[in-house]
């Protein structure tokens, strides 16, 4: 396995699929501005030679290794390799496991991947993800009646990534774009407020986000889409719609996806 050259590399090592470690790493990255970080994930590590190889590759780059290993021999080896290679490592699960052992006088099963066993919750998450992807950006209005959560917001209010994040927690989500020229569909008006979440953002921040989006697409930044006048118009319309629907409204300015999702889960 090769690692792309990067001045800021975080290597994730796991004897399962590595989702837990990557979720923690991503949450930390969001706390830092202007950090261009590359993440390289190694999953299903079972043998010492695999571990030794990835550690040697990681040592060639500036960065550190975050790991979730439950097998004692692999946990011991990664510590030895870190010393040998002068490479920083971060144990994601170890302190929590030790706290559990010390507090509850219990011993871990030391079996990788227990979190991702094919149980009922797993299939519920898969169903929710498939549902949410199929309903992205208001593509299936009828699906609103089957959704656990309907996210409402202007363009660039992080509806899609937030929907997928919630779907990974087993929630069927429909996200619907609010556009002043298009009135709300009847399906939306028929839903109870406790299944609706409005998303908003400070106008100045929205202006920056939309302008950056146009740059990425190679489009002129002076279009109406990225004008403060148009943004204010859309926000006023959205606010009136949220008020009509009686739904909670979350200002996502400067909020990470995880933080917004936590607020939504609290509401529902």
From TrEMBL:
Its EC number is 2.7.11.32, 2.7.4.27. It comes from the Bacteria. Keywords: Kinase, Nucleotide-binding, Serine/threonine-protein kinase, Transferase. It is an enzyme of class 2 (transferase). It catalyses: N(tele)-phospho-L-histidyl/L-threonyl-[pyruvate, phosphate dikinase] + ADP = N(tele)-phospho-L-histidyl/O-phospho-L-threonyl-[pyruvate, phosphate dikinase] + AMP + H(+); N(tele)-phospho-L-histidyl/O-phospho-L-threonyl-[pyruvate, phosphate dikinase] + phosphate + H(+) = N(tele)-phospho-L-histidyl/L-threonyl-[pyruvate, phosphate dikinase] + diphosphate. InterPro entries: Kinase-pyrophosphorylase, PPDK_reg. The keyword Transferase applies. The keyword GTP-binding does not apply. PANTHER family: PYRUVATE, PHOSPHATE DIKINASE REGULATORY PROTEIN 1, CHLOROPLASTIC (PTHR31756:SF3). Bifunctional serine/threonine kinase and phosphorylase involved in the regulation of the pyruvate, phosphate dikinase (PPDK) by catalyzing its phosphorylation/dephosphorylation. Belongs to the pyruvate, phosphate/water dikinase regulatory protein family. PDRP subfamily. This is Putative pyruvate, phosphate dikinase regulatory protein.
């Amino acid at each position: 396995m090769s690692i792309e050259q990067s001045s800021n590399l975080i290597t994730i090592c796991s004897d399962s699929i590595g989702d837990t470690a990557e979720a923690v790493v991503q949450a930390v990255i969001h706390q830092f501005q202007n950090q261009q970080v590359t993440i390289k994930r190694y999953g299903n590590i079972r043998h010492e030679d695999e571990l030794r190889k990835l550690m040697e590759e990681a040592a060639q780059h500036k960065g550190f290794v975050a790991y979730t290993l439950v097998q004692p021999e692999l946990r011991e080896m990664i510590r030895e390799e870190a010393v040998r290679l002068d490479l920083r490592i971060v144990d994601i699960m170890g302190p929590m496991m030790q706290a559990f052992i010390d507090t509850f006088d219990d011993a871990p099963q030391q079996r990788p991947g227990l979190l991702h066993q094919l149980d009922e919750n797993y299939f519920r998450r898969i169903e929710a993800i498939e549902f949410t992807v199929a309903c992205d950006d208001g593509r299936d209005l009828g699906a609103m009646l089957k959704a656990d959560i309907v996210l409402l917001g202007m363009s660039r209010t992080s509806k899609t990534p937030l929907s997928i994040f919630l779907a990974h927690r087993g929630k069927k989500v429909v996200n619907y774009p609010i556009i002043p020229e298009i009135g709300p569909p009847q399906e939306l008006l028929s839903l109870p407020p406790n299944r609706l979440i409005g998303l908003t953002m400070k106008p100045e921040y929205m202006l920056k986000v939309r302008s950056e989006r146009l740059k990425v697409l190679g489009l002129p930044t002076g279009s109406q889409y990225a004008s403060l006048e148009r943004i204010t118009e859309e926000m006023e319309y959205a606010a009136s719609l949220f008020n009509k629907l009686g739904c909670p409204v979350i200002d996502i300015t400067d909020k990470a996806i995880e933080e917004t999702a936590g607020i939504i889960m609290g509401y529902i």
